[in-house]
Amino acid sequence: MPSRRSLLTAGTLVALSGCATLSPASARLAGVRLTNTGSATQEFEFTVTVDRETVYEETHTVRAAEDDATVELDDSLPDRQGPITIATTIAGTDISEETTFDDDNCYDVIVEYTGDNVVHWQSGSSDCDAFQ
User: Fold this and answer.
1) Angle made by CA atoms 102, 103, 108, in degrees to the nearest 5
2) From the CB of residue 42, how many other CB atoms can be counted at a distance below 10 Å?
3) Which of 29, 49, 79, 108 is most exposed by smallest CB count within 10 Å?
């Protein structure tokens, strides 16, 4: 006959193992800004993947820092939830960055090209209205 301790341990493991499968990631993107702080105009190849499906893939021209160096993507992004991966490549270079959001937060992202690197800056909140 199994001991009380082994029954409790087995019951706890079964209960905890179900937690991970009950709440899949439902991350969302509130907005994305492409920013170029470099000295020359750049082409940003920007991709959004949700649940391993590419839902957004566009190339955007972002002028140099001394010009209006920001492109807002808020209205053109799909309103999809799930594990999200964003990827940015500067066209014609080997400079790229990839970030995955696999929780339940809503994210506002700034993609910054610094002249020699790409950085994904993000703010997360449980409420997308926090970024409006």
Assistant:
1) 90
2) 22
3) 79
